[in-house]
Design goal:
It contains no helices and eleven strands. By secondary structure, the chain is an all-beta fold.
């Protein structure tokens, strides 16, 4: 099991930027694909971005393409989500999740989750 801890959320204005971090406990973290999901009240948990174990394959939801960038530093066991040009509709709790090797779209495919970090974007 991989323990994941998110940080970096907060309250910002539309157009601002935030960088979320996801720190992992597992020394073999480099073997895991990691994804960022988000969940707004009353809505499902949706995949925002993902990165495979090697860092050479990424996925972005259409709603965040060109604004968000996912990256990983395996030496630090940390995944980052750089969020630029934030919009009020980006408001949600953001979760990182890990699974072996490849990115998957469904949250049901991920066994390991962080506790979440709140991102609130005011208009």
């Amino acid at each position: 099991q991989v323990l994941l801890v998110e940080s970096g959320g907060g309250l910002v204005q539309a157009g601002d930027s935030l960088r979320l971090s996801c720190a992992a406990s597992e020394r073999t973290f480099s073997n895991y694909a990691v994804a960022w999901f988000r969940q707004a009240p009353g809505l499902e948990r949706d995949l925002v971005a993902g990165i495979n174990w090697g860092g050479d394959s990424t996925y972005y939801a259409d709603s965040v393409k060109g604004r968000f960038t996912i990256s990983r530093d395996n030496a630090k066991n940390t995944i980052y989500l750089q969020m630029n040009s934030l919009k009020p509709e980006d408001t949600a709790v953001y979760y990182c999740a890990a699974r072996s090797w490849a990115i998957a779209a469904s949250p049901n495919e991920y066994a390991d989750w962080g506790q979440g970090t709140q991102v609130t974007v005011s208009s």
